[in-house]
Design a protein that fits this description.
By secondary structure, the chain is mostly beta strands. It is built from one helix and 28 strands. The model has no long low-confidence stretch (mean pLDDT 96).
């Protein structure tokens, strides 16, 4: 089955060097940008690969944007304000806005690979790099440098997926749609970026065929296989496939061929409108109503 532009396998994406313009000793990574390849515009989702002995970024924090990272493979540490905490595959770290500078260091013999994401609020945001005494406003350097408040950090910003109790989800539009879900964003302090670990059994669907009016969505397949349906397209998906569903895009759903585990996420927006075209229903806030 042909694969449309809304899906990309991470192995097919080019590796881009980071930092892009400047060089800091001990800081280097390779970046792949699946959200850009699948036309998400409200948020970014990347894969960052950090070689042993290196840090993936300079320590930084945002004044307005939420960020998060999920460790796909390898191990190392995350520096989070005054804390240095070990991480391995399955760890999720949420970075709410505020003066909690952070970055990851790879300490193993293998690369540390992260799936990472965050908001795009350049007109509101300022980014501090306290070790380099640099500050950016939006997409441009800002001068003079402003001293940030004293560093903070909260160990509740990090969790391991195995330590999160799964809950059974049953869709209100179609009770036959069931999945196991682990909520990752809320315990780590995020309120506008939603990230979930999910599992569906063979033959089950991930959700009801639907689309969002105002919010971007994405899916990253961890294991298993499924047939994805996006609009009129049907195609196979498997491990390391990334699906991007831009706001206002085509309706979508997955049906598991094998037991399927995946990460999924998107934006939290109380004004979002979800349309279920085959069920002829629309959700506005907490209300379901017939589709006009």
């Amino acid at each position: 089955m042909p694969r449309p532009a809304c899906v990309i396998n991470i192995a097919d994406l080019p590796l881009e060097k980071r930092p892009r313009f400047t060089s800091t000793p001990g800081v280097a990574a390779l970046l792949q940008t699946p959200s850009a390849s699948t036309s998400l515009t409200h948020m970014g989702v990347n894969v960052r690969t950090i070689a042993p002995g290196l840090a993936g970024t300079n320590r930084h924090f945002h004044s307005a944007e939420e960020e998060w990272s999920y460790v796909l493979s390898g191990h190392g540490v995350v520096r989070l304000g005054p804390h240095t905490l070990p991480v391995r595959a399955g760890h999720f770290i949420g970075f709410p806005p505020g003066h909690r500078p952070h970055h990851f260091l790879c300490e193993g013999a293998e690369p540390l690979v992260l799936l990472e994401g965050g908001e795009r609020r350049p007109s509101e945001d300022r980014v501090w790099y306290p070790d380099s005494r640099l500050m950016w406003r939006g997409l441009k350097p800002a001068e003079p440098y402003e001293e940030p408040p004293p560093e903070e950090g909260d160990t509740r910003q990090i969790l391991h997926v195995d330590g999160v109790e799964p809950t059974a989800f049953q869709h209100s539009v179609d009770p036959a749609v069931r999945r196991q879900v682990r909520t990752l964003h809320l315990p780590t302090g995020l309120t506008r970026q939603a990230v979930y670990w999910a599992r569906i059994e063979r033959g089950n669907r991930s959700t009801v065929f639907h689309t969002h009016d105002r919010t971007d969505e994405w899916v990253f397949v961890l294991s298993g296989r499924a047939v994805a349906r996006v609009g009129d397209d049907r195609f196979d998906v498997g491990p390391n496939d990334f699906l991007g569903h831009p706001a206002g895009g085509a309706a979508h759903v997955m049906e598991a061929v094998d037991e399927l585990t995946y990460l999924m996420g998107g934006e939290v927006d109380a004004d979002d409108v979800i349309t279920y075209p085959e069920a002829r229903l629309q959700r506005v806030g907490d209300q379901l109503r017939p589709l006009a």
